[in-house]
């Protein structure tokens, strides 16, 4: 199928796709870039990333389990949001702390 035989919609889609996704330039090389530094992450950065990932997973589990528990107890409105919010922060902080400790042990 050549370019002339395609429908107008396909041509418009191709134009939008190419103009949106294919015009980005490669970024310049950072000033402190050295060949031996590629892929090295400091231990503190690994701990922060571990905490962030753990906090995110804990938040999701806090929403799921805390939400079902609050609904089971019959909470609605402000009480529901307050209870689920406390559950989210508690579960996120706990799981985030354990993930950060695990990342620190692996350093």
TrEMBL record:
Localization (cell): Membrane
Keyword Membrane attached: yes
Main location: membrane
UniProt-listed GO biological process terms: protein import into mitochondrial matrix; protein insertion into mitochondrial inner membrane
InterPro entries, alphabetized: Romo1/Mgr2
Pfam hit, one: Romo1
Taxonomy, superkingdom: Eukaryota
Signal peptide limits: none
Regions that span the bilayer: 49-75, 87-105
Cellular component GO terms held in the UniProt record: TIM23 mitochondrial import inner membrane translocase complex
Keyword Phosphoprotein: no
UniProt cross-references to SMART domains, sorted A to Z: Romo1
UniProt keywords, alphabetically: Membrane, Transmembrane, Transmembrane helix
Function: Induces production of reactive oxygen species (ROS) which are necessary for cell proliferation. May play a role in inducing oxidative DNA damage and replicative senescence. May play a role in the coordination of mitochondrial morphology and cell proliferation. Has antibacterial activity against a variety of bacteria including S.aureus, P.aeruginosa and M.tuberculosis. Acts by inducing bacterial membrane breakage.
PANTHER family documented for this protein: REACTIVE OXYGEN SPECIES MODULATOR 1
Family note: Belongs to the MGR2 family.
Name under which the protein is recorded: Reactive oxygen species modulator 1
The species this protein was found in: Didymodactylos carnosus
